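Hi V.,

You were right to ask for the full record rather than a summary. Here it is.
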Amino acid sequence: MPNQRGRCKCFPPGMLRRFGAGGVDAVQNRTAYSAGDGSAPEDLGDRLTVELASVVSAARRRASRDGDRQVDTAHLLHGLLESDPAVRAAFDGGPQVARLLGYLVQRSIGYGLRWLGAVEDSGAVPLVEGGVPGWSPAAAAAMDGALDRAHARYATRAGCLDLLAALVDDPESRAVEVLRRAGVDTGRLAARLDGETPGQE
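Predicted structure:
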């Protein structure tokens, strides 16, 4: 599939642009990403695998528990690493995954303190009034990117590797900052994921 890294999208307030079957634009209400406990809302959940829906729910719970106003890309990365063996297998062995998880759990007492009260805006998607309630612009863009990757391989649902690849596609996101701090070669990871995601259902 074509490399989507560096792509910039701009969505009007209150909407998230998605491409439907046959390339026809479809409009999805941004409240599909609304914050709160429980599973992803049905209008988004039917576009995600069971595993990815679980990751999204875990990320929302973690953000709420930690007192963060929005789910960001680091929350999503944490959920992916904890929940999906295929995601862990995409990295360079157990020690690297352990370093990543060890770094992520320090968020509330260490590096993440500087993120408190700040909006994660990597520049991949310009800030718009209203935004996606409960989601940082970068996290919402990553979810959209995961859906796009699934559509590009004619899958009906986005999976965990789709989201991981979309997270890595944004070099200025908090998720990529965490990956680099843990010693992950994000270019190598992106190339590996470009070869692996077509195998998802």
